[in-house]
Specification:
The chain is mainly α. It has three helices and two strands. The chain has one domain (about 5-75). Helix content is about 40%, strand content about 10%. The radius of gyration is 12 Å and the shape is globular.
């Protein structure tokens, strides 16, 4: 599982917008990903930004959107 996938699963589990710290706590609680970094929240934040709509560092299909509050939420897919 990629970090971004773990973040998406954590946000879906929380069922509300959340900060990277909240997302990290949920990832740890559910044992979704094991971080080897000394600053895992920073690594998580970078991974989320790389998958955030409108981000300058967007690397693939966006999974998240950043709210004015600084929290992130999962982009809901339309059911066309």
């Amino acid at each position: 599982m990629r970090i971004a996938d773990a973040a998406k699963e954590a946000l879906c589990s929380l069922n509300r917008p959340a900060t990277p710290n909240d997302i990290y706590s949920e990832i740890q609680k559910k044992n979704l990903y094991q971080f080897g970094a000394s600053n895992p929240v920073s690594v998580l934040n970078s991974a989320i930004r790389r998958h955030t709509l409108g981000s300058k560092t967007l690397q693939s299909t966006p999974l998240f959107e950043k709210l004015p509050s600084g929290q992130y939420q999962v982009i809901r897919q339309s059911s066309d």
